Structures are given as C-alpha cells and as structure tokens.
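Q: What changes when zinc ion is included in the input?
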Amino acid sequence: MTQPLRVLVAEDDSVGAALLCGLLVREGHMVIGPAAMGEEAVRLARDERPDAVLMDIWLAGDMNGVEATRAITADFDIPVILVTGATEATDHDLMEQVVGSGALGFMSKPVTGDALRMNLRIVRHHTRLHARLRDSEQRYRSIFDNAVVGIYMADPEGRYLVSNRAFAEMLGWSGPGDLVSGVRSIDAQVYEVPGRRQELLARLRAEGTVAGFVSQVYGRDGDLLWVSEHCTAVHDWAGELLHYEGIVVNVTARIEAEQRWRTTLGILRSTIDAMPDHVVLLDLERNVIMANASWVRQMCGAGHPDAAPSADMAGQVEGAVMVRCPECMSEDGGPTPLDRFLREGGHQAGPVRLLPGGEACTCSVSPYRAPEGTVIGAVLVLRHDGEGCLAGSERLAARADMTGRRGV
Amino acid sequence: MRKHQFAKIDCNCTRRATHLKCVFCGVMEYRSLDEARRMTLGQAECQHPDAPQVPPQEKFRAMMGGSLDCLAPDYDTHFKPD
Ligand SMILES: [Zn+2]
Ligand SMILES: [Zn+2]
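A: The predicted holo structure follows.
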C-alpha cells in the first residue's frame, strides 16, 4: 500500500471539482481545497505545502491556471498536473503555454481513474528523484561551504560570481555575499601587480588549467597576502571563455618563511664574503663544499665565472666551486695542517705556501661536525700573513687556533 | 659512494602495484616517487660499480640533515616495453 498523497484541487466548476475530489478520496488520498481562483490556489500551496496540485486551466479571478502553475512550481517546487477540456487540448497556442508553465503532467476532461493514477505515479517518482537530487546538492554544498581551501567562480570581465566562506574570509570579507558584491573589479581590488589577472586569463585561454599560480593579493583591510591558485576554464560550445573556477590556498606563511630564510642565508653569505681571509669548507676527501669570495678569487682568478658573486644567494651555495683543495705546501715541505687534520683530527695550524704562485699564508683547520656530532669536514682559514709564515709554528698554531683566536 | 637510480616497475605479485627498482643493482623498494627523491645516506647507497657517484656536495648536505635524490632521470619509461 502506497503512502496517501495530500493533493490540492484548483477548479472553479463545482461539478468538475466534486468529480476530482471523489476520485482522489476513492484512491485513498487527502484533498486540500478545492480552490476556485488562481490566487487562492497559490496561497493554499504556500500554506499547506501539498504533495501535488491538480489545476484546471481556466479559473475564476485574475490568475488563470497556467499562471498559478508557473508561480507554484517556481516558488514552492510542488509538482502540478494541469487539467483541461478536450477542445482546449487541440489549441496549439494554449498547449505551448502549458508546456512552458513548468507543469509536470497533463490530463484532459473527463478525468478517469486510470489517468489520475498514472499522473500521481509520475508525481511520486518525480518527488523521490527531486529529494535525491536535493540531497546530493546539499552534500556538495556542504563540502563547498566547509572547505578549508578557498573556492570561487569568476567571469572574464573581473567579477566574482560565487565564493565559498573560506575564500571570502581569506580576503577579509565577512561572507561570500559580501565579497561578491564588494569586489567590483578583481583586477583593481585583488591583485597587487597590475595585469596579473590578465596573465592568468591568457594562460587559461591557452592551457585550460593553471596550477600553482602564486600572486600577492589585497585583503579587504589592505593587508597584502600571498595566495596560490589552481584555476580551470569553463568554455561555451563555441570555445569562448564563459567563466573560470579557482581553488585558493593562503601561502603567506610559507613565502614569508622562505624570504626570512633567504635573508638569513644572505647575511651569512655576505659575512664570510666580507672576510679578507680565504674561508673554505671541505669534506674529508678535500672536496670544496662551500667557499667565500676571497677564496674563489684566489683559486680561480677574477675572470672565473665562480668568482663573480651571483645575486641569488641560494644559487651561490648550490654552485660552490668544485675543486680539490687546497693546492698548497707547508713551509718545511712536511705535511700541511690539512694533512695533519685528516690524519689526527683536532685543530691544526701552520704556515703554508699556496700553489700556484707560492703566496705565503697561515692556514688554520678546524673540525666541522654534523648535527649528531661526527666530524664530516673541515673549515680552513687561509690568512695572508707574511710575518706569520716566518714565525715559529708552535706560536702560530696557538694563534691560529679557532678557540684562542683574537680579532684582526 | 654510489647511489641507486630507481625507476617505476609493475610488480608481478597479485597486488599489481607500481614499485621502484634500481636500474643498476636491481634492488626493489616499495616506496613512493617522493620518497625516492628524499633518501637517507643509508637507504641510498648502491654497490653496483656503474651506479652514479654521489656528488660531494649532495653527500655533505645529506650528512647535515638533507637527503639524496635517487630517482633515475627516465624513471617513468625505463622499464616500460617499447
Ligand atoms: Zn642500486
Ligand atoms: Zn607487488
């Protein structure tokens, strides 16, 4: 046994109305009405929310059945079955209006029990389908609304059409509606660099999707933040860009951390480059891991590409000069401080002559340790010190030792 | 020190998952591509004489807490027929 339906009857002819009500009751349904006028039918639909409406095309009052159907389907999403006389069914203009009214079904008089049953089955099917659709629509809606990433849809002219809560809040607006009405020009109000959105549009037209598009954007309060966008173009049948959808992540913290890291690295780099001594970090196989500007000039000559300080600090570290080092000999022809370090460890120092050229230097070697404590390399400091080269090696060792070392 | 060069290979087991195999020594690793790009010194070492030498700087950085990239340049196509 199927669930009885609550059916609103709109019919101005009392005989016709009684006939419809009788059929409905015999099928076990509940009748609302009958309403004789269109306006009354709309009011009852609003107040009573029936499961279905049986609507005569001609009603008393200013509103006919087609108009009342249009209002009920649009405003309350209630299925309407239109009922009409046999002669009207042959009227082409009228039938055009019926099709455009949003009515779900159509019956001609006299209405039979079979026709009514068939139409109400369609109503039930339609209602179930609609409920399922509404359900999945709500699920998507909830994913969209509760997403932690920003989601928006924008038109090529530069206005937001839709936004979720996360995106509106990311830009400092109180909600999606606020953002959509408040941003009249994305180009002028959102992107910091002029022409940035046009760049995005050009790439969307050419490639369809753009990933990892990182830009600086303005929040409503004037704060600048960094965002990374993943955008997809939506085209019409002719291939014209209709609108585009974006998924947005706030990457301000990441970009700022990278900037701080680059600054710190730059300070460290400038500090060792400012030293007049040659400073070089070696691994235990004498490979150069990192060296300062003075060392690069000494070893490679001023014309060497590595001798020119590069603007990109990170790149300089990456591209540290790959030479085995240092080509030098001790004053007495015996093992150099580096030789002694590699054999015995600890701090080593002594006078050396750099090759080629034979420049006299004091070389001091200090162990370089990995975070867990193992020695994995050595830091060499080569100081031009003509006087020092002639002095006793013991005194020099003490002087050049990193721990006991005084300022120049 | 030499390092493995991993490439994707379809496994013969029932799971039919994609695994990584060193192009040189043939060792199999059940790891993601990203994991192959960030291996520790211990995981990365390959005994095969034809495997590439680890550049001293990459090795040094690995000892300082960095990692080694052990993905073969042609990792996607190396073991594919054709
Ligand atoms: Zn291997
Ligand atoms: Zn397997």
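Observations recorded in class: Chain B has three helices and three strands.
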